[in-house]
Amino acid sequence: MKAIAVLGSTGSIGTQTLEIAEEFPQRFRVVAITAGRNLDRVVEQILRHRPEVVALAEADLVGELRERQLQLEPERRPDPLPELLGGRDGLCTAAAWPSADLVVTGIVGCAGLLPTLAAIRAGKDLALANKETLIAAGPVVLPELRRSGSRLLPADSEHSALFQCLQGTPEAESARLSTGEPTPGLRRLLLTASGGAFRDWPPEDLAKATVADATSHPNWSMGPKITVDSATLMNKGLEVIEAHHLFGLDYDAIEILIHPQSIVHSLVELADTSVLAQLGWPDMKLPLLYCLSWPERLDTPWRRLDLAEVGQLTFRRPDRGRYPCMDLAYAAGRAGGTMPAVLNAANEEAVALFLREEVHFLDIPRLIERVCERHRVDHRSDPCLEEVLAVDGWARTATREESRRLHPAATPALPR
Ligand SMILES: NC(=O)c1ccc[n+]([C@@H]2O[C@H](COP(=O)([O-])OP(=O)(O)OC[C@H]3O[C@@H](n4cnc5c(N)ncnc54)[C@H](OP(=O)(O)O)[C@@H]3O)[C@@H](O)[C@H]2O)c1
Q1: Which protein residue's CA is at the shortest distance from atom 34 of ligand 1?
Q2: Which candidate, 154, 337, 159, 346, places its Cα nearest to that of 234?
Q3: Ligand 1 pocket, residue 132 CB under 6 Å
Q4: Is 17 in the pocket of ligand 1 (CB under 6 A)?
Q5: Ligand 1 pocket test: which of 107, 133, 163 has the largest number of ligand atoms within 8 Å of its C-beta?
Q6: 169 Cα to the center of ligand 1, angstroms
Q7: What is the pLDDT of residues 23-77, one digit of tens each?
Q8: Could you report the per-residue pLDDT of 68-106, keeping only the tens digit for each?
């Protein structure tokens, strides 16, 4: 029985992880959950999973959660009740919870950084969904991993595909688990991308894209931030940086391919030109299950892939003009040091402004570019944690400043 901690249990990754735990009760036990503000879902999860500890990012909500637990009818109330924690320290305590074997990182954004580091320092294995942590703080996270011996299992479907392709080859030993060292025999990584909500829109229509348009993903059901990142292709750009850290290849050897069907989840090219791919329906449960069960494969009753039903698998190179975020991400990855943290924070802030309808869709790359440009003079090549956190905060403020410069009037005329 593997004991798991689920960070961000109320989100898309978190709820799917808990569904897997429920489906395999003989294999997985949920001992810790953390959430942001969604108390209704947290109460439901406490009743279903009976974790030992629950941590809320909003410390002010802990009292309300305690009240709600006490109001449950005695026959439904878990006995013992879970320990309740709040705030940043509470999240870190839950992430390092002693009985947990594996920590699933489903917090969105750089807010996941400190809990992820707490889990690593406690020597936990990680199922990494929260890519922003590795992107913003690769220079901090990788040495911590080497020190603690924690293993980093990729939960992102593309990186899981790459990881799965390398299992059973001599390359697997170093491919797995993120030493940041180059993987022997591995020549190229091909990351597939659905192309997001606007892949078939004429570029001239993108200026009119609304929040509703950008948050309707054609293939995947995910949280709002990553769905917008898919529409800009920043998600793929962030994944390029993630792949660089996980598999140790140079940026020139990591390519993006638009694959509208989202059936081939990514491919590896080996030294002899052989190319291996991993295929499946677009469903995050498969990579999540593999993280949970690795190195075993579990027998599931899930819908099996039917290639005849799929019919066609098509691929094309991404259009750099349509997706400027892609080049911004490659440039930040190549610059290294603090630049990916700035890129990531500027993107998080720009997407939040877009979701609040304070900027246009096409403002997202404009804001990120301006903020990365401003950071050049202060760039640090080998930052410590405090420097990463400092540039993260600076980049968020700088993005809001740039947004006010772009739109001096309080509310820009936005498409509805
Ligand atoms: N969804 C996918 O299919 C998918 C695929 C690959 C990778 N990922 C990655 O997985 C991560 C989670 O994505 P998601 O789509 O699951 O996001 P999501 O649905 O928006 O869920 C985010 C989770 O993080 C919690 N949270 C939000 N702000 C927080 C904060 N400041 N501190 C602590 N917790 C906070 C939320 O809590 P409340 O809701 O309770 O406020 C929720 O539990 C992201 O890094 C994303 O890039 C997701």
Answers
A1: 36
A2: 346
A3: yes
A4: no
A5: 107
A6: 33
A7: 999 999 999 999 999 999 999 999 999 999 999 999 999 999 999 998 989 888 9
A8: 998 989 888 999 999 999 999 999 999 999 999 999 999
